[in-house]
Structure formats: C-alpha cells, structure tokens
Amino acid sequence: MSVMGVQAAADPEPGAQDPHTGEPQPSPRRPAQTTRPLVNENDEKPPPLPQPRRIVPRVQLLVSNRGCSARVVTVSPGPLIRVEGQPVSIRCDVNEYSGPREQDFEWMTSREASGARMKIISTFDASYSHSSLSKRVASGDISVVRLEDNEVELKIAEAKALDAGLYWCQTPSTDSVISGNYEAQVQLIVIPNTLSVSPQTPPQEAAEGSDLTLSCNVTRALTQPTFLSVTWSLKSGATSEEILTLGPQGGVATGAKFARRYADGGIRLVPGKNGLFELVISRVTTSDGGTYECNGTEWTHENGGKWIKIVENTKEMGTVKVIPTGQSLAVRATSSASPSSTSLLLSPSDALTLLCSVTADNLQALALEVTWLAGDRDIVTMERSGIVISNTSSSLERTGAGEYRLGVRGVSAEDGGDYTCRVRAFIDKGGKSAGGGGRWHMAAEKRSGPVTVKVSQIMPSYTLTLEPALNPQMTAEPTELACHVTNVTHLPPGGRLGVTWEHTSLPGEAPQTSHHIGSLDGSGNLLLGSMYTDRLRSGVMSLTKVQPNTFKLQIIRTQEIDMGQYSCSVSAWSVNSQGDMVKIAEYKSSPMTVRWDPKRPSLNVVAKRVREASVGGATFEMSCTLTTENLGEAGYSVLIQSQESLESNVRTIMTLSPDNVLQHGGATDPNRRDSLVLTKSGPAEFRFRLAGVQLSDRGFYWCDITAWTKQQAGQTWTRATSAESNKVRIDFQENGPSFSIAIQSDDTSVYPSKTAKMECSLSVSGSSPKTDDLAYEVRWFFTRLRGGQTTTQVASVDRFGIVKAEIRNSSSELSVERRDTHTYLLNIFGTHDSDSGEYYCVATPWYLSASTGAWTQAGELMSSRVFLTVQFAVWDSLQLPLLYGASASIGVGLFSLVLGLVCAHCCCRNTTHTPRSRNKLMDLEMD
C-alpha cells in the first residue's frame, strides 16, 4: 500500500536514497514515534488527523543563586526547520522576574555559528534594528507582536535563505538582584521550497457504477528531516470536502461522507513509485461528480512532539461528470416469433414466449431485477440474486447478458393483453476488496414498450329458462325457482357454469330497485348479496346447483318484501394458463314475477272449563283453543288474566312466551306458585290449572293470546295479531267461620320517652276451627299527625309468626307481641312527638278447611283507628334548666363569700401590734 511509500519518504534510513529524487538522505534526528492508523474499521466516521497537545517546550538556562528563584527566559524549541518564502514565528517569554509586570524584549541574530550578533528588533527601542534589517522591519516583513505582558512573538512574513542562523531573545533586567538567565537562543534552518504536486487529469466522464482512479505525484528534495502528506478533495459548487488524507505519519484519515465507503473497500489506495499516489473510487454514483483536487503538504516534527506544517501545494486534477445509469439504460420487449412486431395473435392452448433485452453503458457493473407485467399485474420476477418469484405458472430465465425470456404455456382468453418488461438497475456501493458491501443503491428503473397479445376464442352459447317449482299463494309459504341451461355449445374443455340471482321490486313501486341476492362462480364459491347475507347464512334462503345445468333459488318462508321479479344470469368459466377460473361469457334470463294477494291474519280463541271448582280447596282447570286464518307458521304468547267482577281491575296470573318461557304475574301470591300450571297441550291448545282454590280466587278467568312470526331463524319475533277468549267463572260458597277485628290502647295520651301500647284483637264466630287450624296475618299502619296525611306500614307479623318492623324516621322503637291466638300487641318504646297520629291494624285470617283439608284465606279485616297523642311536658322540660340555674347561683354566691373573706383578711390586717392598756377607761376615751 501507499502507506509504506509515505513512511519511507518520511523516515529514511542512514545512507538510503530518496524514493522521489534518488539522492542520499541524511539521518534525521527525531524522537521515537508510534504510528497509529487514523481510520478505525469499526467506526462510521474516522477520527481526524492526530494533533499533539498545545505544549510549547522551553529551552531553559537556570543559574542558581543561594537557592532563590531566578529569572527564566525561554524560546521555541529548535532547531526550527522552515521553507523559503513561508512565514516564520518564534515565541519568547520570561518568568520568575521582579519589577514591572510588562517586560521588554530584544531580538538578535547571527548568520554564522561563531559570528557577531546583529540586532533585529526591540519592543521599546524603535531604532534598535541593524541597518541591514531596518527596511524589512519598516516594511513589516520582520515584526514583533506582544502576546502577553511577559510573552512576545518574532514574525518573518517571508523567510529567506539568509535568515537561517541563531536567534537570541533578551530581556533587560528589572530585578533588584541579578539572577537566572536573561537570554535564550534557538537555531532557524531555512530550506528551499522543493515541494512539487503534479496530478494526472482524470477522465471527464465516468459511467455510474464504474471505477475512477485519481493519480497524484507529490515529491520534494530531502535536505532536512521533513515529512509528506497527500490529500484528495472533491469540490462541488462552493463547498469542498476531503476524501482521504495519507500521512504525515503514514496513517489514513477520511472525510465524514467517505468513511463508510473506505471501510467497505469502496475507496482504496494503490501503491505507487517515485512519489506517485493513486486513489481508486469504486462504483461511482452521481454524487461523486465534481472537481477533484490534490494537496501535498510538507511537515516537520519538532522536539516536544509537535507537528508543524511548513509548506503545502494544492492543484486541481480536473472535473469529472458521472453519467447516470438512466441515460444509457434501455429496455425492449419483443416476441421470439416476431421480433419486429409489437402485436401477437395466439390460439387457445398455444405457448407464449417473449424476450426482454437490457442494454447500458455500464451493464457489467449493474445488478438487474427483471419483472414481466400483464397490464398492471406482476406475473413473474427475477431478483438481482437470480431467484425467480412467480405469481402464475409462467417461467422466466436469463439467456445471456441482458437477455431474459418469459414463457407461458397453454394460453387462454384471460392471458390476452399488454405485456411489458420492467427493469430495475442496482449498484453495490461496497468495494471490490470487501467482496461487495451489500449496500445496494437503485440507480435507475425503466419499462419497455408493450407487446399486445391476443388470444382468439369462440364464445360459448346456451339458452336459459326460468320456471317456478313452488309458487307461494300467501305469506310464509315456500318459494322455489329453477334456472335451466340448455343447448350449450362451444364450452371449452374443463369449462363450468355459474349463476347469479337478482331481485327487482314490482313495477309501479316507487322507487323500483334491484338487488343482488347471491351467486355461484365457476369454482362453486357462494358470493352473498349485502341485503340477503343473514337470510342465506341462516338457511332461510339457499342457492344450489342441483344438476350440471340446473340452478335453484329457495325461500323457506316467503315474506311480502320478497314479492317482485326474479332473474338468473348464467356465466361460462374456463381455466387459464395460471390455473385460475375466468369468466368468458354470461347470459341473462327473462324476469319472472312472484306475487300473491296478501290477506290480514286473524286469530280466534275459545276458553272452556275442564274441571269445576265447586268447593274451596278444589282444582280448577281451563283450556284455550285457537284457530287462525292467513297466518301460516307462527309462535304464540299466552296471558292468563282474571278479575273479581266485571267492573274490577284486571290481574295477570301467568304468562307463556313464544319461546315457552313461563312467568308469574304480579297478582300471584309467591307462596301459591306451585299450585299454578300453564302448558301447551296441543298445536293450538293451552291449559291453565289452579289447585286448592280459595275464596280470594273467585272471579272470571280468560286467555289473551298473541300470534308472532319470524322472517328467518335467529331474528326477533314480530307481532302478527292477538285475541282474547271468552271468560270462565270460578264461583263457590264456603260456609266457613266469620271473623271480626278491634283495636284499643291503654292510654291514648302519653308523655315523651314513655311507652305506648296498642292491642289488636280478633274474634271468630260460626263454625269455629281448632286453635291449631287457625292463623292470622296482622299489619299495623300509621298516619302521621304532622308532615302530611301519608299512611305507612310500621310493623307486621305473618301467619307463621315472623315479625317485620319497617324502617322509620323516628327515635322510638317498635315491637310486636302475640299474647294469645287472637290477640296481638304493638309496643312503641321511647315515644317521640313524631309518633303522634292515627294507628290501625289489618288482619287476614287463615283457617284449615274441614271439607277440603286445605288452608283457606278468609277476607281481609280492617280495624277502627286509634289516635295517639304524645304530650309536651312543661314541668319535665323545665326541671333541668331550673336545677342548673339554682346550682349555678349557689356556686357563684359561695365563691363571692369566700373571695370577700380572703380579701378582708389579707388587706385589712394591722401589721404593728399595740398592747391594750390596763386602763380601760383611758382606752375608751381615746376611742
């Protein structure tokens, strides 16, 4: 690789020859280096050229003075190798000094190692320069620039050969004690500019996908240890981007857009001799077009590891235009039988052969994907890998470079049409050295002109006859239509027949509409119309092929919406070359009208007594027989209803739905539901049975029957008509006991929080049953004195002794007590003002009938009303406030008395004691 060539030029052995000039090379003095590649194979973007850290080594001369710090003057490390005509800069700084912060500097030079010094320039003396240098200083060719208070830079705009020599940087002393060094020197070597860049002009045009070689010759005369680097760049418009850089250490760095291609081998260096460097770009694309440049740079590696660019030269190599593949790509489709014709006529079962020819300037660099299309439908494709994907029985093979042949065996009328060849050209952007990177880029897509293929065929013919097998005369009757196919001719081998049924509303209906019922294709597949999908799937309607030439449409239950005109269309199908069934002909029958005179359905129901209930506890049974007209098949719902008299309210005893779901009505006692039976005893008969009749069951009974129909299975029932039967009466006399009820209270006026008691007493007369054969259901009701006249139930006890107290908005509590068989007591504990109002009780006696042995319910009894008053107790309400007030008054009085005594004792006591005189009279006078 060229990396070796650059290293040989950059690091010659002693006595070796320059690979570019052939002259002996001196042995360079430079520190040992480790060369590392600038391109990481695992990175998408390689790192830039390595730049050493900005560390300026110093040449220091230190003079020790009794261990104290001393002035230190340093300059750029040398020797400094620069090229004639190029700028030169030498830095100088001073540290560890005393005096003012800003220091002055003086520069001197000596052209010979032992020669006298010559003044160059000073920061404080404008007349400091030697006469031989004053003009260059005045013109600015030589100048000094202050960088910091303690740092300056000597600059030479264009170095000359006579500028080579030793340079001194001095600083005048500002220290109180002279110590350290006040000057430092460095050697400047000026070499002639021998860098030569000679690029070879690349071709002006390159086909997309071809390789492009960029050759550039970079040399220089090696008089000092310098190094070379070569850079190729691509300029497109006003922007320029580096492609690849080789050197100066022998490493390689690539531009961001070219890193992936270099890693894949799409960009590679080719070794050369005598300073020739070649860069090869494989499989160029249109983005590679532009102006290419070659740059040669000469470097020096100074002490401290810093790389310095001393001279560079850039030359334009030339402009390259990449010709897109689409400009040269051409696709042509022809017939092998007639290459010059774009139309082809075939007979059924013939073979079809078409050729696709592809040409391009860079055909060998392209990977082609070839597809044959019939109209807009892909029939077969050969991928760029050579794999063939076919949607039909056709074949595709590659017969030569850019030649592809399509073969179709046994064509039919379906295979007629326009055939075109579509070609997609791909370029692998991976390099040759990588064996192809697999990063494919579609360069162009072209489609050939069409080749028209016609397949001659004699159309089949036949005759259609539509006949009614079953013609409905009324709603819900079946309908059956038969479509016969006769006189079939020219049906191709393997051909089949299909049918399509349509329904049109009767003429005169506005608007008259047509709907697709369903069809059977050549393969026997059933295709459903949107309006008839549910009926066909449920089996209410069916489309069948009963014979090879006979098709039938059946409707199990014809509805009024089915009246109209029906027609059948029979189609002929054949098998094409791809094995698919295709329609080649279709004929439609004459319409046939299906209609009838719709009549309103009617229903008649007759109820009769099957078993008479003459005494209590007997069984009553009634049958309801129905007759229909113009109804057909239907379902029935039955309601058993009753009323005590012809003027009383109607009660629903039981119901039976069309789906035979039995339910009890709201008027049915839950405890007697086992005694009620309702069944369907025949196709048109229903029976109702009531076991153990009681006095409360007396009244009129009848059936209310409704007829329901369904258009198809799975749908909801639709009401057709309904009717009520005659009424059958249950009437019997029961000479049972008679009952009476009374209510009384021990006290109708109570104080709050007291207990009120109310007694509900029942008595029996006549044929009195035994105690064990008698039970009562007792309920208490209450009408509030304040807050409205609403009557609410407050408590109850059933005939089995179960007590239930209702939830009330009161703080009082209720309890029910049974004192004996005929006496029930209601207790109200902790009465409240809200308990004032009217109370009464309601009782329902039950007794065991001696004649039937069944429990019989007697009539309901209601007592008179008792008014309860909860009085407001004035004295009771004042007791506590008076007690609290008296207690508070006594407490305050005692507290005031104690407080007065304490104050008098503490405040009025004489602190000086005077003994009483013995002379009482004198004391009295003094008083």
TrEMBL record:
Residues 1-54 are annotated as: Disordered. It is a single-pass membrane protein. One of its GO terms (cellular component) is membrane. The keyword Repeat applies. Keywords: Disulfide bond, Immunoglobulin domain, Membrane, Receptor, Repeat, Signal, Transmembrane, Transmembrane helix. Pfam families: ig, V-set. The chain crosses the membrane at residues 882-908. InterPro entries: Ig-like_dom, Ig-like_dom_sf, Ig-like_fold, Ig_sub, Ig_V-set, IgSF_V-set/TM_domain, Immunoglobulin_dom. It is found in: Membrane. Residues 57-179, 192-294, 339-423, 460-585, 737-844 form the Ig-like domain. This is Putative prostaglandin F2 receptor negative regulator. It comes from Scophthalmus maximus (Turbot).
